[in-house]
Amino acid sequence: xxxxxxxxxxxxxxxxxxxxxxxxxxxxxxxxxxxxxxxxxxxxxxxxxxxxxxxxxxxxxxxxxxxxxxxxxxxxxxxxxxxxxxxxxxxxxxxxxxxxxxxxxxxxxxxxxxxxxxxxxxxxxxxxxxxxxxxxxxxxxxxxxxxxxxxxxxxxxxxxxxxxxxxxxxxxxxxxxxxxxxxxxxxxxxxxxxxxxxxxxxxxxxxxxxxxxxxxxxxxxxxxxxxxxxxxxxxxxxxxxxxxxxxxxxxxxxxxxxxxxxxxxxxxxxxxxxxxxxxxxxxxxxxxxxxxxxxxxxxxxxxxxxxxxxxxxxxxxxxxxxxxxxxxxxxxxxxxxxxxxxxxxxxxxxxxxxxxxxxxxxxx
Amino acid sequence: xxxxxxxxxxxxxxxxxxxxxxxxxxxxxxxxxxxxxxxxxxxxxxxxxxxxxxxxxxxxxxxxxxxxxxxxxxxxxxxxxxxxxxxxxxxxxxxxxxxxxxxxxxxxxxxxxxxxxxxxxxxxxxxxxxxxxxxxxxxxxxxxxxxxxxxxxxxxxxxxxxxxxxxxxxxxxxxxxxxxxxxxxxxxxxxxxxxxxxxxxxxxxxxxxxxxxxxxxxxxxxxxxxxxxxxxxxxxxxxxxxxxxxxxxxxxxxxxxxxxxxxxxxxxxxxxxxxxxxxxxxxxxxxxxxxxxxxxxxxxxxxxxxxxxxxxxxxxxxxxxxxxxxx
Lengths: 364, 327
Ligand SMILES: [Zn+2]
Known about the structure:
The structure holds two protein chains of two kinds. Chain A is mostly helical. Chain A has helices spanning 12-41, 47-59, 64-78, 85-105, 110-125, 131-144, 149-169, 174-195, 200-217, 227-230, 236-253, 258-269, 271-274, 279-304, 309-326, 333-345, 350-357. By secondary structure, chain B is mainly alpha-helical. Chain B has one domain: Glycosyltransferase. Chain B has a two-stranded antiparallel sheet with strand order 1-2. Chain B has a two-stranded antiparallel ribbon with strand order 3-4. In chain B, helix 3 runs parallel beside helix 13. Chain B is globular. The termini of chain B are far apart. The model of chain B has no long low-confidence stretch (mean pLDDT 95).
C-alpha cells in the first residue's frame, strides 16, 4: 500500500543494481527473521531474544508477528509471580519511548499504535500508568498532523481512560470530574475549528461532546468555578444559536467547505436540538439561517455568475425543513426548480437530484 | 469519454511480477503477503486471467501459511494468524475451489473456533489475541464465517449491534464508536449489514448515500475518503461498492470516476497507483480494477464483481452465507 509516493520508472539496469546493493540488507534481515522464529518456536524468552526483536522491528515496524513475540517475551520475563514490579514498569516505559520514536516516523502504522495500547494496559495492571503523559504525547502528534485518523482516535481513547482513572480515584465526584474533562475537550475543539474551519475531525468530536456535556450539566450542582464555562449549556436552544453563529464565519469565508455543512445539518435535524424548543422558535431559526445562506449565495452569484452549489444545497435543505414544519408538502415547485439548477451546476450528483425530483427519495 | 485505454496485458504482467522483484522492500512487506496475494488473484480473476498464476503453487503457498497453534492463517509461513490474512486466504481458496476441499474438516473446525473466539462481549471483533478492535475486523470475521458457510445469528446479531454503535451524526461510520466517519469503514460496516441481511437499519434516510456521493471531487472525478481530503483510487472501491450495495451507484458520475482510475495506470509497466503519476502497488491495482468492474464490467469484458464480498459474483453466488442449522 503506497500513498503519496511519486512514480519513478527505473530501468531494468538500475533495478538490477539496486537488487545487488540490497543483497546484504536482505541477507541480514532474513537471517535475523529466521533466528527469531527459531527462538520463538523453542519458547525462548530471554533478554537477548528481546534485543533481537528490537533490531528487527526498527528495520520493519509492520512485522506484527515479531511484535507478538516481543510481548510474549515481556510477559514471560516480567510477569511471573514474584517478579519485580518496578523492573517491569521501567521496561514498559522504555517501550513507550521506543514506540514514540517509531510513531514519529510511521504515524499511520496500526501495529505500532496497537503495541502502545498494549503497553499502557500492562501499566494499568501494575497501577503505574501515566495517562497525562500519554495525553501530552498525543497532543503533540496531533500538532504535526491535524487530521491524523489514528491521532484523533488515540486522543479519545486516552481521554476515556483519564476519565475512568480520575473517577476511580474520587468516585463521589464522578460527574463533576467528567464535566471538567469534557469541557476541556470541548475547548480543544473550539481552538481547532477556529484555526481551521475545515477540520472535520474537530467538528466531529465537538458534535459528540455537546449532548454529553449538556446531560452532565443538568444532572449535577455545577461548582462555582465552572459556572461561567457551562453557561452555554443551559439549554439546547442556546447551544444551537451559539454554534450556528460560530459556523456563520465559515460559511461566509468558504461556502464550499463540506465540514461546516455537515455540522450544520446535524444542528438543524438532531433530536437533541429539535425536540428542545417550540415549533415557532425552530421556524425562526430556520428562517434566519435561510437569510444568511441566501445572502452568501447572492454574493457568490455576483462573483461567479451562478449559484454556489453548497449554498443552494443548504437552501434546499433548510427550506425543506421549513416546509415540513408548515404544511407537510416537501417537493414544492420552488424546490424542484432548485434541484434542476443543481443538476446543471453539480452534475456529478445528477442521479441523486433526479431521484429527488421524481420523489423516489426524500430531500433531507 | 475517456481517452486512456485499459492496458490489460501490462496489468497481468504486473501481477505476475509482484513476486519476482525481490528487493529489500519486498521482504519488508511479508506481513502483507497474504493480502497481496488476494489483491493479485482478485485482479486476475476480475479481468478473466486467473490462469496467469500457477494455481497449485498459489494454493501450496496459502496452506504453508497455516498457523496450527491458533488455527488461522498468517500472512507468510511462520507468521502468526490474524483475521485479515485469514479472510484473504479463504477468499483466494474459494475463488479456486468453491468446495474448499483443500481445507480438512479438522482445520475447518479450528478456523471457526479461531474466528469466533475473536468476538468480544460487545459484539466487536479483535484482529488477533492482542486486542486491537476495529469495524474492519467485524467485517473480516463475518465475511470469513460466511465464506465458510458458518455464520449464525448468535454471532451476527451482537456484531450488528456494535456496527450500529459506530454510526455517526453524518450518517456514516467510523472504526469504533465515537470515531470519525471514513469511507473504508463505511464499506466494512455496510458490508457487514448486507451479509447479515440488516440493510433496513440504514435505509430510512438518504444521509449515508449522500455522504458517499459527496466523496466524488473535481477536477479529477476521483473519490476521497473523508471531507476535504485528496482523491485516491482505492476509494473507488470503498465508496462505489457501498453505493452499489445501497442501490445508489447512479448518485455519482461513473464516467468521471472511470477516467480517474484509468489515468492512474502506469501505461508502461502496468499497475495502478493512488493518484496519477504516483508509485503503483497491487492494492490500488486491485481496487482500481474491481472499481472498473463495478462501473461497467461488460464494457471491459471483466467478470462482474460482488460489492459485498469483493469477489467475482460467479464465486459468491454459491455462498450459502448462513450455517445450515438443520443438519
Ligand atoms: Zn489508497
